[in-house]
Design a protein that fits this description.
175 residues, Metal Binding Protein, Guanine Nucleotide Exchange Factor, Chain A, six-stranded antiparallel beta sheet, 9 strands, zinc, oxidoreductase, peptide-methionine (R)-S-oxide reductase, Met_Sox_Rdtase_MsrB, Mss4-like_sf
Length: 175
């Protein structure tokens, strides 16, 4: 197989429909986004560089991935909220966190309307990538191999999140 044939095959893959989980979740999130009134920020990614640590910036705005098992959030079991490390939008509630065995913090669902989706072909097959709906920061990928009842696994980079215990007030959103 020559390079041109290989590239044409990858281009063809991008036209295939995605899994039902992606389409169902994307549609539900799009509807919830209207209900949640999350207004995307009109702020260039470079403007976040001074506001977040370098490792978080690399994940959030350069779509890097932290090493598996490196996040202290893997061992976080308190009641609270997981917020975007850049703009502080709440993305996940602790009641939906579970140990997926992957080495990254994982959740069974997001806070409806607080994430946006795109397709990612970095591993040569389509994956559902999700971002903070407000600042656009890359959070992770959603897969359809999670626990019942939804069957979703939201695999998140720990450096892209901050944990806020329920006993503490959420910080004001960053603009």
């Amino acid at each position: 197989m020559n390079r041109r044939t290989l590239l044409q095959g990858f281009a063809l893959l991008s036209t295939l429909p995605l899994s039902g989980v992606y389409l169902r979740t994307r549609t539900a999130a799009a509807q919830a986004n209207v209900e949640a009134n999350v207004i995307p920020l009109d702020k260039p990614h470079s403007a976040w560089r001074e506001l977040v640590p370098p490792a978080a910036y690399a994940v959030l705005f350069e779509e890097d991935t932290e090493p598996a098992g490196s996040s202290p959030l893997n061992d976080e079991h308190r009641d609270g909220s997981y917020i975007c490390a850049a703009c502080y939008l709440p993305l996940f509630d602790s009641q939906h966190k579970f140990d997926s065995g992957t080495g990254w913090p994982s959740f069974t669902q997001d806070i409806p309307g607080h994430t946006a989706f795109s397709r990612d072909f970095k591993l040569f097959y389509p994956r559902t990538e999700y971002h903070c709906a407000r600042c656009g920061g890359h959070q992770g990928h959603m897969f359809d191999d999670g626990p019942p009842p939804r069957g979703e696994r939201w695999c998140n980079n720990g450096v892209a999140l901050r944990f806020i215990p329920r006993s503490e007030p959420l910080p004001a959103l960053r603009s």
